[in-house]
Fold:
Amino acid sequence: MSVIVLIPLAAVLVNATSQGLGGFWSSVTGGVALTALAVTLGASLVVAAIGAMMGTLVAWVLVRDSFPGRRLVNALIDLPFALPTIVAGLTLIALYGPRSPVGVHLVYTRAAVLVALMFVTLPFVVRSVQPVLIELDREVEEAAASLGASNATTFRRVVLPALRPAILSGAALAFARSVGEFGSLVLLAGKVQIASIVIYADIESDATQSAASLSVVLLAVSLIVLFLLRRWGASGAR
Amino acid sequence: MRVSRRAELSLRAVALLYLAVLLLLPLGVVFARTFEHGFGTAWGWITTPAAISAFWLTVTIAAIAVPLNTIFGIGCALVLVRGKGRGRRLLDTLIDLPFVVSPVIVGLALVLVYGETGWFGNWFLRHGIRIIYAPTGMVLATLFVSLPFVVREVAPVLMEVGDEQEQAAATLGASAWQTFWRVTLPAIRWGVAYGVVLTTARALGEIGAVAVVSSNVAGSTLTLPLLVYQRDSQIGPQAITSAYAAGTELAVMSLIVLLAMTVLAPKGAKTR
Structure:
């Protein structure tokens, strides 16, 4: 574990500061790096928010609704986990690229980045909300309804609080995944500056130190998300 | 909560439409594009020497990484659930690290340690072992990114089944090894199987980490995802068709994995 995971990550940290903290700072606040960080974190936040909403909706339909083909749809949710990310990128180019059959040209824009990230992170919220929704005690909802609460109130006051830890942890995973995503974006990001692609380009052009610096910032973001997840997980289990 | 028929239908419509636009439509278009010049052309593109070599490299890397991570994952889950030592909480958190670290950073980290100018790379090179820009490094990268899957599937199952049966076996005179093979492993087998499927899916499709440590030479260090990337970056209509062909090949492989996931998941869920 430490040979494959910890020592290499330590090497990134050492390399980033190899030219002093000043060197690290100037690499991170350089034009390209700063734009890339802003674009990546911004896009990830948007994707996590949309994912939280749509994921909860999809989970609700899969658990509470019944219609022919529900099992098939349920299996489809895992598709983005099974499908190699480069193929995900390719599919989006086929659909929204220069020869788009639906006449929508998104490739090489920020919108394409958002769609790609929504695709690869779709299962996170659905899969974390689904089990909680199955376990949820429906008698409490009925009690709320019999006391005169409208559907909207019941959902807001009874269902949502129970789902919140699951939605949050799913969204956090989606966020972390988006921040580091490479495979699905490399074909269709074009000139949009995405942190992982900037790092890749830096490595290819032997600018190791600036690649390492940007990596350290991303690592810090992932570690924060990881610890937040731990805390939410702990409070959810209680 | 009783939802009116109209609300139910509209929720269902929104959910299905979202999934169709996001998942099915793009996949359908790729299949259509792949076969627009006929099945023979597509078949030709995935049977070029470079494509065949990429296919076997992808399968070989997965065949090495998946068993190693399975053994590590089961061992690690046993330590996490049954162990008593200190540092268990730390290990529990660190295990998830590969899930949240960008694959490109994984590649960079491996280059910094095992690359030519890296910490240990020189030592390995002097002993005639090339790690970075060689399949060995690609295996290491795949090991890293697919590390947590088996642990995360097996640990909850282990927790659920408890250790009473294991203790009973030990009381009846079974050795630790016998207890593991006869009692523990059968109890966790669905969790292991699901973890293996997830690991396989990730190992087959990994590109970010592998791209950094590969020398990207067709025929020797190009995996299928890298081949798709390389072909798509080339110019001309043929390049696109060939990229789609290799992409479809990968998609078919992953659909088989998805099928395995669907078959195994309900059983895994029951034991949880």
